[in-house]
Amino acid sequence: MTETENIEASARAGHSAGASPTSEQPLPEYDNQLSGFHRAFERELQAIVNELPLTAEMRVLDLACGDGFYTSRIAERLGSGGFITGADISQAYLSEASAQVSRHHGRARINFVGATVDRLPFPDDTFDLVWCAQSLYSLPDPVVAIGQMARVVRPGGLVAVLENDTLHQVLLPWPVSLELPLRAAELRLFLEASQNSSKYYVGRRLPAILAAAGLEPLRMTTHAFDRQAPLGEAEQKLLQSYLEEVTERVAPYLNAALLHELGQLVDPGSPQHLLGLPYLTMTWLNVLAFGRKRSV
Ligand SMILES: C[S@@+](CC[C@H](N)C(=O)[O-])C[C@H]1O[C@@H](n2cnc3c(N)ncnc32)[C@H](O)[C@@H]1O
């Protein structure tokens, strides 16, 4: 058996031994916004993938791979001796990911595995690089999740995490009177939603989290994706869906006057509609951090 076949076989064994990917569930509610994000910022996200420290023969894991957006792009940077495994709990996403990679023509081997992050079906030290994008808030505990990534990466190998920080993910020209109450309302919601609420604004703490999981934190960079009116169609869709989603989220925590003010900014029929501003700017922030597994 080749090394790749070994890993695929152990993944299958791990799968049947207890990991429980969801086979019946549809795509999650956030899927629309996530794929809108990919469409609106494809150029910048591709540039981030282009900068990853990959070589042709590497063994890569895309953990919580979702629809395979990054899996296929990383695969294109690998040669015929390299391979990438996409792992995700969602069978619906794994099907999307398989369809997505079939449209790309790289030489690397690609496979997908149903897996939960807390029981990754791979032996220790399997991969040269583990990639995990925009997923720590979906996973139960960021330190446990990165601890698993640390387990399966080889000594000297890298864990690369792309994340955002919900409380300052999107910078918009909000009226100042609204901006801070809106963020305070979001924070209240997060505190109520989870005992581990800080995972929703994990971006600011990535080096500390990598260290807590036993990795040596290396560089962390913030990537600002700037747009200015007139926005393209994908950008408009993404921004409108973000505005509607954030309004729904904070509505129970804002007083009537602030909620009305917010409603005017979000409503396409209102003269105050944010997307109608002649000099609208938007900035989408992402944090990319690397941790290295120490060699023993
Ligand atoms: C926000 S999506 C990000 C997907 C992809 N990395 C991207 O950026 O497009 C979060 C992903 O985490 C997966 N996920 C959630 N809980 C998980 C778990 N316990 N184990 C593995 N994957 C999980 C979801 O199915 C989803 O694909």
What's this model, at a glance?
With 296 residues, the protein is α/β, with parallel strands linked by helices. The chain has helices spanning 3-16, 31-40, 42-51, 69-75, 91-102, 142-152, 176-193, 206-212, 233-250, 256-266, and strands at residues 59-63, 83-88, 109-114, 127-133, 153-163, 170-171, 216-228, 281-292. It has two domains: 3-166 and 196-223 and 285-292, Rossmann fold (3-Layer(aba) Sandwich), CATH 3.40.50.150; 168-194 and 229-283, no CATH class.
Describe it.
With 296 residues, the protein is an alpha/beta fold. It folds into two domains: 3-166 and 196-223 and 285-292, Rossmann fold; 168-194 and 229-283, no CATH class. Helix content is 40%, strand content 21%. The protein contains ten helices and eight strands. Strands 1, 2, 3, 4, 5, 6, 7 and 8 form an eight-stranded mixed sheet that branches. It starts with a helix and ends with a strand. The chain binds S-adenosylmethionine. Residues 30, 34, 64-66, 69, 88-90, 93, 116-117, 133-135, 138-139 line the site of S-adenosylmethionine.
Which features characterize this protein?
296 residues; alpha/beta; Rossmann fold; 2 domains; 40% helix; 21% strand; binds S-adenosylmethionine
Note the topology.
Layout: H1 3-16, H2 31-40, H3 42-51, E1 59-63, H4 69-75, E2 83-88, H5 91-102, E3 109-114, E4 127-133, H6 142-152, E5 153-163, E6 170-171, H7 176-193, H8 206-212, E7 216-228, H9 233-250, H10 256-266, E8 281-292
Parallel strand pairs: 1-2, 1-4, 2-3, 4-5
Antiparallel strand pairs: 5-8, 6-8, 7-8
This protein binds S-adenosylmethionine.
Residues 30, 34, 64-66, 69, 88-90, 93, 116-117, 133-135, 138-139 line the site of S-adenosylmethionine (SAM).
